[in-house]
User: Fold this.
Amino acid sequence: MTSTFRKAALGLLATAAMAGAQAATVYSDNFTGLGQIASPGSFGTSFSAAGGAGELTMDLLGFASLDGNGNCCTDVFHLSVNGTEIFTGSFNMGGGGVNTVMLAPAGSSVLTTTNGATDDPHNSTQITWAGGLTHIVVPVALVGGTNSVNFAYTGGFQGTGDEAWGVGAVTVTSAVPEPESYALLLAGLGALGWTVRRRTSR
Assistant:
């Protein structure tokens, strides 16, 4: 095979490798219909996946005076996947305190908005009684088959008239091979082989 054909083959393989995996949604739901949940409290959900690396994106909702870390009544959020706690944090969503991530895998991102804050709403320690929202993105390890996710809050019980939490949109994506990419690769290799045979038979 000439140098030109070698380069063409390598380019084709590299293109197929880059296009071979794309984020695919394996689970999506919205739990705002559950309304306000008292702290402490928890609930879970499950879904099927092929397994492998994935990413979970969610909106954590805070109502009234849900507390961040370090004030009188710290409330702590816990996220578990397949029975293992992977994310823990305390966020000021109306009740004061500091936004603090206590446990998170590398590559996570968190953004808290304290409703009604007159300073930086993403880093406020004000007590606003206006609730808030924390957007969380965490890498997850998915198993082949059924995967479980559990959302929980711990802290002193204050009743939903004082504070509550909830979960909005939740999406789980997974890197999966694109079948079209493999078809393209095979077609390209076939065409390359046909071209090489034509040149060598001359």
